[in-house]
Design brief:
336 residues, Rossmann fold, N-(1-d-carboxylethyl)-l-norvaline Dehydrogenase, domain 2, 2 domains, 8-stranded mixed β-sheet, 8 strands, binds 1,4-dihydronicotinamide adenine dinucleotide, binds 1,3-dihydroxyacetonephosphate, 6-PGluconate_DH-like_C_sf
């Protein structure tokens, strides 16, 4: 008799823990947390209070702070650490991961310097493994609270995607699939920059028309860059595109939106990051996105203003004045 598929999730933060809890409802799952205290709390109390307060995790979820044990356990490996740490964590785990184990990324940022997407970093550190991602409008706390949500397994190979879908699905968590890995990954990465802009708007006290404008023009920027990089346009109208953009721009739970809002209320980035104690990927990724846009000759006025705020100290009020000066081109076609 064959044994059930074993899932390992690397990263004991808000989302890694939540995905591990979902998977544990379906199959034996081991979560690797850097902190031994976090691993112990998950095993003994079935909570991760540092990131998810007193929310109950699936009781069968096991955790370890031993990376080798976690890697050896994996029939399917899920990488849930922030983008900037993926390369180092996987370099250490790689000798212990069996060949051909599929690897799914949860991360929504780009590696500074290399400008690589998380799945490309995985491809470099774990060559020969099928690589994809799990993404969508998935604010961790809401998913763990059992509120209905949907995600996408994006992977070029449909058969592998089909096999992975049921591992993460739950009664009120629907998992779709999509072969456009590039578009699905870029949707999750780029929406963080627009969410910072949406937060800035919130902090400046804008109206609903302005909110709608930021979100819609933000989607235009995301789609333009994504298509220029080779993604399918329709992906940006789906869960990993418009869906994730809406959730992140609208929800006070979003860390990226909270960063933008606090900046508009005159807090410094250092104060905000220290208070939050969690990752807001858009902050580190904004400069890389602007560089990519220039390289692909794509206009991204909102991303440029966000970059100027987080990297050059421009005040959000000035950024919004800057946007008012941006040329109103044709709504769908860029004018040179
Ligand atoms: N929280 C959410 O609702 C969602 C988050 N994501 C994405 O998932 C990724 C992880 O985010 P969260 O879990 O929310 O972050 P988090 O800030 O809640 O937790 C980050 C985790 O990574 C660990 N970590 C940080 N640096 C590390 C390093 N150098 N080596 C090993 N571990 C390290 C921390 O100890 C912590 O366990 C991000 O890319 C985020 O954009 C995606 C969907 C939803
Ligand atoms: O990606 C997310 C929801 O899908 C979480 O967004 P934040 O990282 O801004 O909290």
């Amino acid at each position: 008799m064959s044994r059930p598929v074993q899932v390992t999730v690397l990263g004991g933060g808000s989302w890694g823990t939540t995905v591990a809890s979902l998977a544990a409802g379906n199959t034996p799952t081991l979560l690797w947390a850097r902190s031994a205290d976090t691993a112990r709390e998950i095993n003994e109390q079935h909570t991760n209070s540092r990131y998810l307060e007193d929310r109950a995790l699936t009781p069968s979820l096991r955790a370890t702070s031993d990376l080798r044990e976690a890697a050896e356990h994996a029939d399917v490996l899920v990488v849930g650490t922030p983008s900037h740490s993926i390369r180092d964590v996987l370099a250490e785990a790689a000798p212990h991961v069996r060949p051909w184990v599929p690897v799914l990324s949860l991360a929504k940022g780009l590696e500074a310097g290399t400008r690589l997407r998380p799945t490309q970093i995985i491809g470099e550190t774990l060559p020969g493994h099928p690589v994809g991602l799990l993404a969508g409008p998935n604010l961790a706390r809401e998913v763990l609270d059992g509120k209905a949500a949907a995600a996408v397994v994006a992977l070029p190979d449909a058969a592998t995607a089909c096999a992975l879908q049921p591992l993460f699905a739950a009664h009120l968590f629907r998992v779709y699939r999509n072969e456009d890995l590039l578009g699905s990954e870029l949707g999750g990465v780029l929406k963080n920059i627009i969410a910072i802009a949406a937060g800035m708007a919130e902090g400046l006290g804008v109206g609903d028309n302005t909110r709608a404008m930021v979100l819609t023009r933000g989607l235009s920027e995301i789609t333009r860059l994504g298509v220029a990089m080779g993604a399918q346009e329709r992906t940006f109208a789906g869960l990993t595109g418009l869906g994730d953009l809406m959730a992140t721009c609208m929800s006070p739970l979003s860390r990226n939106r909270r960063v933008g809002e606090a900046l508009a209320r005159d807090k410094t980035l250092e104060e905000i990051t220290a208070e939050m104690g969690q990752v807001a990927e858009g902050v580190k990724t904004a400069r890389t996105v602007v560089e990519l846009a220039r390289e692909h000759d794509v206009r991204m006025p909102i991303a440029e203003e966000v970059d100027a705020v987080v990297n050059d100290g421009r005040h959000p009020r000035e950024a919004y004045r800057g946007l008012r000066r941006a040329a109103a081109e044709h709504e769908y076609h860029e004018v040179a």
